[in-house]
């Protein structure tokens, strides 16, 4: 897809991978519609991008709410007359399988899975009608293999990979010119390890659990050792331009994880989890 002049809609656009992708897309001539739950960060992102010369509008939303994504589509249509590239990217982390209460699972699945489903529901009919566009959903290496201490997150990212693979086949069966990609990053230097900043207030007690704190500290170290979000953004643009489904920022770790799981399924040993391996590309 040619990016010049197209309208790119990005959820979780106020920070990290979403913001870096917005900047790269604007650099390639796209107009931007950013959605995020953090009003202040979104305001700063919109100001920065506008200052750099981008045509950009921001909307505060919660991706877990279907009506918020419908409103985002209406904003794109009102401001720019269309939408072409949709990046369902907003995401939050969780804790371990053992001991994580159901409302925290619901929060993670709501943002990470319903957020993607709601973006697809709001924008796919438009893209299919115009028979032009591309959808990118942000999953993770955690969508390709289990990781201790990240149960709800892993579950949500497996779901995103599954949704996008299924969508890929559905688009192909229809002969549609709409493209689909799934982004599976390893660790990237963003604020993802601080994502409980957006945890609903009534669930805050969960953060006192020592197992949650320990898993969070491990993830924080790996995130800080990760790659720069601009490197991820460059791969996103390349995948959109060349209609590539898999966007693997840490290709070695992604293929190794998948090969080791296959060996495990065939009766070999369980893979040894080493978070360091997911920090380097
Ligand atoms: N950073 C990593 O190491 C890494 C690795 C793999 C996958 N990812 C995925 O990348 C995506 C982007 O995360 P990031 O790393 O840039 O982290 P980030 O925390 O810097 O950015 C995430 C953005 O999503 C927004 N957000 C959170 N909940 C929301 C909601 N309910 N509605 C709307 N916006 C919401 C946040 O306010 C934030 O601006 C996520 O889906 C994350 O799971 C990140």
């Amino acid at each position: 897809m040619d990016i010049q002049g197209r309208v790119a809609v990005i959820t979780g656009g106020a920070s990290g991978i979403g913001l870096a992708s917005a900047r790269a897309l604007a650099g390639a001539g796209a107009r931007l519609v950013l959605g995020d739950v953090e009003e202040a960060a979104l305001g700063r992102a919109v100001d920065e991008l506008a200052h750099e010369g981008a045509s950009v509008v921001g909307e505060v939303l919660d991706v877990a709410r279907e009506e918020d994504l419908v409103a985002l589509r209406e904003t794109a249509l009102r401001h720019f007359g269309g939408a072409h590239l949709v990046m369902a990217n907003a995401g939050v982390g969780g804790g371990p399988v053992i001991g994580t209460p159901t409302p925290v699972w619901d929060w993670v699945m709501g943002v990470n899975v319903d957020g993607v489903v709601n973006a697809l529901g709001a924008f796919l009919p438009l893209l299919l009608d115009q028979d032009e566009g591309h959808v990118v959903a942000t999953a993770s290496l955690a969508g390709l293999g289990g990781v201790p201490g990240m149960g709800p997150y892993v579950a949500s990212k497996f779901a995103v990979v599954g949704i996008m693979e299924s969508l890929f086949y559905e688009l192909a069966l229809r002969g549609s010119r709409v493209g689909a990609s799934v982004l599976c990053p390893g660790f990237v230097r963003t604020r993802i390890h601080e994502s409980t900043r957006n945890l609903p207030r009534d669930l805050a007690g969960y953060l006192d659990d020592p197992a949650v704190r320990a898993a969070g500290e491990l993830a924080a170290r790996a995130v800080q050792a990760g790659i720069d979000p601009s490197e991820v953004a460059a791969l996103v643009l390349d995948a959109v331009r060349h209609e590539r489904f898999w966007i693997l920022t840490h290709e070695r770790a992604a293929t190794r994880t998948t090969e080791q799981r296959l060996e495990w399924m065939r009766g070999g040993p369980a893979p040894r989890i080493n978070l360091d391996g997911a920090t380097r590309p």
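The chain has eight helices and seven strands. Residues 7-278 form a domain with the Rossmann fold fold (CATH 3.40.50.720).
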